[in-house]
Structures are given as structure tokens and as C-alpha cells.
Fold:
Amino acid sequence: MGTLSANHPAGGDGGNGGREENAGPSRFPRSEAFHEFWRPDRVALALIALILVFRFWLAAVFPITGDEAYFTVWGQLPAPGYYDHPPMVGWWLALLTKFTTHPLALRLPILVVPALVAWGMYLGLRSIDRDKAIYAAMAFLLVPVNVWNIFITTDTPLVFFSFLAGLSWWLARSSRDVRWQVLAGIFLGLAFLSKYFSVLLAFVLLVDVLASPRNERDWRGLAIVFACSLPFGLYNMWWNYENCWANLMFNLYNRHDSAGLSWKSPVLFVVIAAYVLSPVAIWQMIRERSAFALKWRDPGLRFLMLAAALPFLMFAGLSVVRPVGLHWVFAFLPFFFMAAALMLSTRQMIGSVKYLAAFSLIHVIAIVIAAGLPLDTWKNSRWYDGIVFHFRIQEVVDTLKTFTPEYELAADGYSAATTASVVGGRYVFVFGTASSHARHDDLVTDFRRYEGRNILIFRKNPPTDAEYRPYFASVEYGSMKIAGATFHLVFGRGFHYTAYRDGVLAEMRDRYYRIPAFLPQGACVFCERYFETACPVR
Structure:
């Protein structure tokens, strides 16, 4: 693989005057057999095996979540694009769902992606310092989210392709090899088709070129990267134009209703940053700040520092006006640990590995203990109904099936609808306005075909008569009890489509399909299907 430039300051003296401290091994008895047994590569392989065993076990026993079910439905209904995000995770799951919908099988990508990224980190760094390459990969794998996170989401392909794009650009920085630049562009485009956070990585590349000395600015290489990623962006733009600008509407408008100044969100983001990074490494980097100017001169390390720092700084700024999700930062973690490996000594990297191993072990113990507790342990929790729903979903689905074919099955939100769809093997649609998230059902379900039909709506919360009475000839209410949790059923007979269009679908159109005036209106199946006109303009 490519190497950094010869003047790299961080062969890893870590402030020790160029004396690399192999103090990690020297703290053990000076037995060759002992040292051979505790070789870093052997420890790393054992660590990967242990983590994979735990992750596969957890993926096999933990029920499918609402988000995972939502993306699984994407896979079961293959399409050029989907409502909330670009389509990559749906395309991945389209391949897996051809064989099974067992949670363990659906989660195979997220189970192996962290290990693949760690392997890529090692391959990229090993020509500089093999031991520190191993410890950087180990540290990344030991971040708690890479131990317990077994949930397949849009972040899974984003992390994978963003890392490959960043790694390719990093290698291109030292080699100026156009092949790495082309690969960086292709992987950046694939990351864009995974999630829009990839735009942050594109911004990092631009800043990386601008931050270089004037005579080292590789504008040609950056142009090659952006040119190779452009077809993927144009494809997504075409899909949005033909589908209500759904991705843009969701990410730029519909999901930000709760945005506003808050002191809590920045504090929460600081906690998130401390949780996903290594406070040990951060403190050591601060202590080495006197050598920052020298380290900054190296183009490869400068890029890694920017790729690690800029997204976190931008999220920190955003946290002032809205909460930042834990998963938002996942795609930029590998670059932090690669930068740490080039800035710190071997001993310092071992310190981060030990800290993260202990921190993750606490998580593993807690998860194993929680898995052994009976379900009613959580009975007094406000999340108990949701816990029962997911852990006893088969009982819920079996009960609902007793009402078919007399009733069409629906739920009042996407989580319940998609989870029941995947587990029950029959599509369950969303009835009502639901939330701004996960609205792909708007593009799939045609309420016109339910005119006069009977519809059973599943709810976790008690219904109100005003939500259903105007839209059916008659309505009855029922409930089911499972493991002490109560779920509610609405039996609507004789669905009135016109009343539902005027009372519910019109509200959804005005709330979620009001297209900004600066965007040209293409096709929108929702507006055209129900109102035979273009969408309203905001």
C-alpha cells in the first residue's frame, strides 16, 4: 500500500525525542516464549475473534428493531430510491432478503464491516509502523459502538464506503497515483448513495487541498475525485426529481420541526464524542500539541487530522440548534484512530487499547446480564410496551393474522407496521399521519384501493374516536394483552377514501410535500395519485 512522505514526524516518538518506547512488551517478563505468545498480531486476531463471537451471538438473540425492519422492507420492495435516504442499504438488503429475513442474516453487513475497516486501517498503516497499525485497528474495534452495535442501518454502507474513499484519498496524497483518486471518487459516490453525511467527507477533501502549501495543492486530483463521484450524485438527483424530492425534503425540511437553541444538545454531543473516541488518546494529543506544527506539514497526517476533526467540529456547531445522533459520527471514527497512530507512540496507543477494552468489557457484562433477566424485569419502565412488542412480536403477528382476510392490516406508525410486515410476511401499511420519519409507505400504499374495505389498525397507545370515526362506516375498539403489556386495536368497517383524502392525506401533503419554489417540480406519485395536481410550493 502507499506510504506517507519521508519527512513524517510521527514515526511515533510521541514527545520522546525520537526514542520509540517499546515499553509495552518490556513490562512483561523477558521471556521469549512469553513475548511470542503476546505478539500484537496474535492478540489482535484473538480480539477480533472474541468480538465477532459476541456480536454474532447478540445479533442472533436480539429481535429486529423498527429501523431495521423499515430498511428490510426497502429490500423486499426493490426500487431505484426510497423516501428518507439514498438507496444503498435497501439494495444491500434486497440481496439478503432473497434468502431469508432472519435478523442474524440481515445483520451480516454490520457484523463484518467494522472488522473490514480495521483490516483496511492496518493495511494502510503497516508500512509506516506495523505495531501501531495493529493497535490503531484494535482501538477502533474496541470502541463500544463497534462491540455492541449489531443493527443494520443506512450508516452501515456509509461507514464502509466513506472509509474506502478516505483511505484511497490518503494513499493518493503520497503517491499522486490517479488510480487512487479514481477509486476515491467512486467510493465517495457510493457513500453518497448511502447517506448524505458523505458530503462532509467531500468538504474535508476540499479543505485538505486548501490547507496544503500553495505549491502542493492537488486541484487536479480533487477534480478527478469529484468527477468520478458526480454520476452517483446526478443519479440521486434524477430520482428525487421524479419522486417528490423526497430525500431532500426529509433531510433539509421535514425532520427539523423540533430544531431550536438548547444548552442540553451541546453537552450531550460532548458526551457522545467522549463515548465514541478515546479520551486517553485525546489527552495525549493535547500534551503533544507543541509538535503540532511539525506534524501538520505531513500531507497524509494533515488529511487524517482534518477527516477526524472537521466533522466533529461541524456537528458540535450544529448541536447548538438541534440534537446530534450518536450514529452521525460513525463514519469518521477510523480516521481519528489512524491519526492517533501517526501522532502518538506505541506505548500511548497501547494505553487507548487498554482503556477501550475495559470500557467495552463493562458493556459486554451489562448486556449479558440484561439478556439473562426475565422480561417483566422492565415492567415499570416507560419503554416496556415497546420491549414486549419487539421481543414478543411473533405473538403480536399471530394475533393479527386471526383477523385476516376479513381485515386489511395497518398500524399507526412505521415501526410497528414494518416490524409486523417483516415478521408476519405480509405488508402492513401505515394509517394516519404518523411522523416525519420513515414515510416510504406514502409512495407504496394506494388508499384508493381500500375504498369500502375493512381495516384493522394496530396501536401501542389508546386511540381517540376523532382519529377514526370520520373515515369508516363503523368503528369498534379492542385490545390484546401480552406479557403484561396492552396493545390497542381499531376495527374499521367500510373505509371512506374521500373523507380520508380530505382529512388526512391533504394534511400530509401540506406538511411533507410542500416543495421549495427554487426546485423544479417533476413527478410526485403522492400528489398526483390523490390530488391529480402538482405538489404545493413552500
Remarks:
- Residues 10 and 141 are 22 Å apart (CA to CA).
